[in-house]
């Protein structure tokens, strides 16, 4: 059986208790999408447990935005994979370009986090993507292959891993690659990962462009930032995947 499509919302450092209302609205859209689409919300760590609790009984998954590679210890400010599980998470985003940029995470760090996530039973959503300079230099496919080789450990399966192709230059900019560029990148990623692993596109997905992106070969859903914060924006993206 093929896995359902997946639309995941990355709330980044946005969301207070008051915004649980949006999550409930998104859960309604998720329920309407039924078994065809998995819906996942990744709020800030402070909102994980209350969101998981508010969404109990719904079919919307809740996930973290990062985890530490270690299980516990002297790592001030960090959250382990087991702690995400305690809070109700089933997935975790790893290797997001904002983590690579702001926290200097390299592929080896990310691979260790993927292992930590797997060891706690979390689904790792591994983000990869080229910078604008890398695309301009014609090295997009090389960069994607290098990132996959170095940050995805042996043992990836459709059950424990999702890959998100997120061109760095498309995140939060309102710019998206052409359908041909997404097709090329996703075909290359598909060739590098075990069969059946879901491939998401991420970077400035909106209600307006979602249908065209979802119609692209090898696109199994989306990782959505800004447009996942409000139910009125996220709902049509979920609907476009049905
Ligand atoms: C993201 O940060 O993963 C993302 C895709 O953001 P946006 O949709 O806002 O470009």
From TrEMBL:
What pathway or pathways are given for this protein in its record?
Carbohydrate biosynthesis; gluconeogenesis; Carbohydrate metabolism; erythritol degradation; Carbohydrate degradation; glycolysis; D-glyceraldehyde 3-phosphate from glycerone phosphate: step 1/1
Q: Give GO terms for biological process.
A: gluconeogenesis; glyceraldehyde-3-phosphate biosynthetic process; glycerol catabolic process; glycolytic process
Recorded hits in SUPFAM superfamilies, A to Z, give: Triosephosphate isomerase (TIM) (SSF51351)
Its chief place of residence is: cytoplasm
> Which positions does UniProt annotate for substrate binding?
10-12, 172, 204, 225-226
Q: How does it assemble?
A: Homodimer.
User: Could you tell me what this protein does?
Assistant: Involved in the gluconeogenesis. Catalyzes stereospecifically the conversion of dihydroxyacetone phosphate (DHAP) to D-glyceraldehyde-3-phosphate (G3P).
HAMAP family, A to Z: TIM_B (MF_00147_B)
Q: Give the protein name, as stated in the record.
A: Triosephosphate isomerase
Q: Which organism is it from?
A: Pararhodobacter oceanensis
**Gene name of the encoded protein:** tpiA
């Amino acid at each position: 059986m093929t896995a359902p499509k997946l639309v995941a919302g990355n709330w980044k450092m946005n969301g207070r208790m008051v915004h649980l209302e949006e999550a409930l609205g998104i859960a309604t859209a998720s329920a309407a999408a039924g078994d065809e689409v998995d819906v996942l919300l990744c709020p800030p760590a402070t909102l994980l447990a209350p969101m998981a609790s508010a969404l109990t009984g719904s079919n919307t998954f809740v996930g973290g935005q990062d985890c530490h590679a270690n299980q516990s210890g002297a790592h001030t400010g960090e959250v382990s994979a087991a702690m995400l599980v305690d809070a109700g998470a089933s997935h975790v985003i790893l290797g997001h370009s904002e983590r690579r940029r702001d926290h200097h995470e390299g592929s080896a760090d990310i691979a260790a986090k993927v292992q930590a996530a797997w060891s706690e039973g979390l689904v790792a959503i591994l983000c990869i993507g080229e910078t604008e300079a890398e695309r301009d230099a014609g090295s997009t496919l090389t960069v994607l292959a290098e990132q996959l080789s170095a940050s995805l450990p042996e043992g990836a399966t459709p059950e424990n891993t999702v890959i998100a192709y997120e061109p760095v230059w498309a995140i939060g900019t309102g710019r998206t690659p052409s359908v041909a560029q997404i097709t090329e990148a996703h075909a290359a990623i598909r060739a590098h990962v075990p069969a059946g692993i879901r491939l998401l596109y991420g970077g400035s997905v909106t209600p307006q462009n979602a249908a065209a992106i979802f119609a692209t070969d090898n696109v199994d859903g989306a990782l959505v930032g800004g447009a996942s914060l409000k139910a009125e924006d996220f709902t049509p993206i979920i609907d476009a995947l049905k």
